[in-house]
Backbone:
């Protein structure tokens, strides 16, 4: 290296060295000393930060800087205390609102920053804290990047969840090219009552009437699972795949569209049922296929919801089988760069989005679709659906309910394992989307309080992105399909 290059390098790094030296001298000169720090969970209320410190000068400011899971944006808040040379500061960061909800099991990386009256600063070392549900004593089982937190005598259930999670990561991680080194935490609850208080704030109706078997918070890297669920392995793998898909394909500009997101989660499901295949066959028989790649969110009627999931899983399966796993990995990478799904598909597969869908439809013997004409389209505000449960007993139809039967069409199907029991829901229009659910009680409809949680594939309002279990959609729509079949037959 020439003397000129060495001289230029010295000039370049000198400001950084001077800044680091000045900061260090400032902290030492002020002689600020941390006596103690602590972080405690008061879930669901929030997390409490405490710091005791002293200094030669009056301490005038104490702040906490922390990041929740893998969220890109961190938090910065000031602790409360009386200024002085010896201070005892405290902050309760509330997490029991829709805007600031943090799921139990989230990893919190934090450090404190202290400022005295002379401008001296001290930043503590960064530490990690697990925001557990404070109502219970938690134990953990871990393998690789996955940790499952459980309480009570359900270790075997926790190990079952861990096994499903590792199987899903080993399959879907390489397929999507996702980062599988970042930690993923799963918190399992033993019954519905425990699970209810752990979920994001919702309307009284949802909290009282419906059961959520799983929910993923993809930007935090946390999945909540109901341990008593009938398909705990399927719940785990579906929700975990949402986390993997987020890491592989979501960018700061765009999210992976719902049809692709949900299709991948069902493709990665290690314990799939037969409901979605049945729904797809029903749609084929009755000319009910949806323009799947043109949909930006879940449909608004129960029967269309289950058809949506059946189509989403099958077209994603077609994409992998027809074009290979490497193409799906490349598609995720292109979308991760910020490219929209239309251009990403053209770049990777060499066909338009509509052409891709028609290639898939051709394998089913289904009619083609055309690209929508957007030349005269005007922006329209559409309310999102809210699920309001009702009982099948209220539907007065006699005779047995026939299952949808396959026509002589070649449709790839998965090995059947379990079929969810039919539970119905009416879809009504309200301003926000409810979390998807898997069962219901017999109480009737509740009040009209609006929820703050996020629906499947939709970011929660101001909080972590929440993605719900697809099994719910099957339950929501299966009864609708069966009811429609009764009317048609």
Residues:
């Amino acid at each position: 290296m020439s003397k000129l290059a060495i001289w230029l390098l010295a000039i370049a790094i000198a400001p950084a060295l001077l800044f680091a030296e000045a900061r260090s001298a400032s902290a030492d000169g002020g002689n600020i000393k941390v006596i103690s720090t602590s972080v405690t969970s008061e879930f669901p209320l929030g997390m409490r930060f405490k710091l005791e410190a002293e200094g030669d000068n009056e301490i005038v400011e104490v702040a906490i800087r922390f990041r929740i899971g893998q969220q890109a944006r961190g938090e910065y808040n000031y602790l409360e205390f009386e200024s002085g040379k010896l201070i005892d500061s405290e902050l309760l960061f509330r997490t029991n609102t829709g805007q600031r909800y943090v799921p139990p099991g989230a990893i919190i990386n934090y450090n404190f920053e202290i400022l005295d009256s002379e401008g001296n600063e001290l930043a503590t070392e960064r530490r990690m804290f697990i925001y557990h549900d404070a109502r219970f004593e938690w134990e953990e089982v871990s393998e690789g990047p996955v940790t499952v937190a459980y309480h009570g005598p359900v270790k075997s259930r926790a190990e079952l969840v861990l096994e499903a999670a590792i199987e899903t990561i080993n399959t879907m991680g390489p397929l999507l090219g996702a980062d599988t080194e970042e930690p993923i935490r799963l918190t399992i609850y033993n019954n519905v009552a425990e699970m209810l208080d752990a979920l994001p704030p919702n309307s009284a109706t949802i909290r009282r009437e419906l059961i959520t078997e799983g929910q993923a918070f993809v930007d935090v890297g946390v999945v909540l699972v109901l341990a008593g669920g009938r398909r705990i392995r399927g719940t785990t793998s579906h929700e975990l795949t949402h986390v993997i898909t987020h890491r592989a394909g979501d960018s700061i500009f765009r999210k992976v569209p719902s049809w692709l997101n949900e299709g991948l989660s069902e493709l990665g499901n290690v314990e799939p049922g037969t409901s979605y295949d049945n729904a797809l066959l029903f749609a084929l028989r009755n000319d009910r296929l949806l323009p799947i790649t043109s949909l930006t969110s879940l449909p608004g009627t129960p029967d269309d919801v289950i058809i949506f999931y059946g189509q989403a899983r099958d077209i994603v399966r077609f994409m992998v089988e027809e074009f290979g796993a490497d193409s799906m990995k490349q598609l995720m990478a292109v979308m991760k760069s910020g490219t929209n799904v239309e251009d990403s598909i053209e770049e990777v597969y060499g066909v338009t989005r509509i052409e891709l869908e028609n290639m898939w439809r051709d394998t089913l013997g289904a009619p083609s679709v055309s690209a929508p004409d957007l030349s005269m389209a005007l922006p329209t505000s559409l309310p999102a659906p809210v699920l309001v449960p009702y009982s099948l007993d209220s539907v007065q139809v006699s005779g047995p309910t026939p299952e949808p039967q396959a026509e002589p069409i070649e449709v790839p199907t998965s090995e059947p394992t379990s079929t969810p029991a039919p539970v119905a829901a009416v879809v009504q229009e309200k301003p926000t989307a409810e979390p998807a659910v898997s069962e219901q009680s017999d109480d009737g409809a509740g009040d009209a309080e609006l929820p703050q949680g996020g629906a499947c594939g939709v970011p929660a309002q101001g909080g972590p992105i929440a993605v719900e279990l697809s099994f719910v959609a099957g339950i929501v729509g299966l009864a609708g399909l069966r009811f429609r079949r009764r009317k048609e037959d």
The chain has two domains: 16-131, 139-368+382-488. The first strand starts at residue 33 and ends at 41. The two ends are 85 Å apart (CA to CA). The chain has twelve helices and 18 strands.
